[in-house]
């Protein structure tokens, strides 16, 4: 069973001394993250194409089974809206080449303004992409949901091209009554859309956005456990990304998801211990 579990980022200012080892430096974050999780969302690409040196360093810091799911640059998806962007696409995809076998589906995250009227543009863009890579599409216009004709057309297109659907579930986030800044900011910036448990190809993606209260988040997390278990039984290789409003505790919520999934699929291995715990235990053993 190939199942990928990760977070929105491989670094957070609150993780050294908790998730990471106390002495961890920024250059250690990715390698320590990859001791536990086997994938990460790559929003770095959304804000700009990373340098060659960065891409090469990232490749050196992860094991062979790790998968990066980088997001297409916003220049392509939001500014140019998938039109007249061939040069930018070529530059982005070429920059990803050093990661070769460590790439998961590259994430085409479309803005809310990208409506069902733009489906012909999306189709032209997708059919022209080089098939050496895998891709996933995330839409946020309400017209693509709730069994609409546009939803059927889009899902049929993705199935035909073997491109994955990104399932975004922010139900728990918007159910929160918390008034902290992180929650309010997340509620303002995240889409609030119907939840569709859809798989259009072999690597369905789930982006789950929970609450600051991890216990409250778990109630909404349960809804995905059976779905992901079913996908695995069908031979699919899903990707699950866990978010919380400021992501400081996202690793703990991801651990809980994995525990719940193992209750349905006992053959799944346990997650590795947090790097800080492993490194501390190793250091203590070496003293005697």
Question: What can you see in these coordinates?
Answer:
41% of the residues lie in helices and 12% in strands. The chain has 288 residues and is of the alpha/beta class. The chain has a single domain, classed as TIM Barrel (Alpha-Beta Barrel), CATH 3.20.20.410. An eight-stranded parallel sheet has the order 3-2-1-8-7-6-5-4. β7, α10 (214-233) and β8 form a beta-alpha-beta unit. α6 runs parallel beside α7 (149-161) and α10 (214-233) packs across α11. The chain is globular, with a radius of gyration of 19 Å.
Write the layout of secondary structure elements.
Blueprint: E1 4-7, H1 29-33, E2 39-42, H2 44-47, H3 52-60, E3 67-70, H4 74-79, H5 86-96, E4 106-109, H6 119-127, E5 135-138, H7 149-161, E6 164-169, H8 171-175, H9 181-189, E7 205-209, H10 214-233, E8 239-243, H11 250-264, H12 275-285
Parallel strand pairs: 1-2, 1-8, 2-3, 4-5, 5-6, 6-7, 7-8
């Amino acid at each position: 069973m190939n199942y990928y579990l990760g977070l929105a980022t491989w670094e957070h200012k609150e993780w050294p001394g908790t998730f990471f080892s106390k002495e961890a430096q920024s250059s250690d974050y990715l390698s320590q993250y990859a001791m536990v999780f086997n994938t990460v969302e790559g929003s770095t690409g959304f804000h700009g194409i990373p340098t060659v040196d960065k891409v090469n360093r990232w490749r050196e810091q992860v094991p062979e089974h790790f998968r990066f799911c980088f997001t297409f640059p916003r220049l392509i998806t939001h500014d140019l809206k998938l039109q007249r962007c061939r040069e930018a696409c070529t530059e982005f995809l070429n920059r990803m080449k050093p990661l070769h076998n460590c790439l998961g589906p590259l994430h085409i995250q479309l803005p809310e303004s990208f409506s069902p009227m733009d489906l012909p543009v999306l189709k032209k863009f997708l059919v022209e992409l080089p098939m050496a890579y895998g891709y996933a599409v995330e839409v946020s216009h309400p017209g693509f949901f709730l069994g609409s004709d546009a939803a059927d057309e889009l899902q049929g297109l993705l199935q035909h091209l073997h491109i994955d659907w990104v399932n975004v579930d922010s139900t728990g986030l918007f159910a929160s009554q918390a008034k902290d800044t992180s929650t309010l900011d997340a509620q303002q910036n995240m889409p609030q859309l119907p939840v569709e448990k859809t798989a259009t190809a072999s690597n369905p993606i789930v982006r789950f956005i929970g609450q600051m209260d991890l216990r409250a988040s778990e109630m909404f997390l349960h809804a995905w456990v059976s779905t992901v278990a079913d996908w695995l039984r069908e031979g699919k290789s899903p990707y699950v990304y866990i978010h919380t409003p400021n992501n400081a505790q996202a690793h703990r919520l991801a651990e809980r998801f994995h525990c719940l999934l193992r209750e349905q699929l006992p053959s799944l291995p346990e997650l590795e211990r947090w790097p800080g715990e492993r490194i501390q235990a190793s250091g203590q053993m070496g003293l005697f």
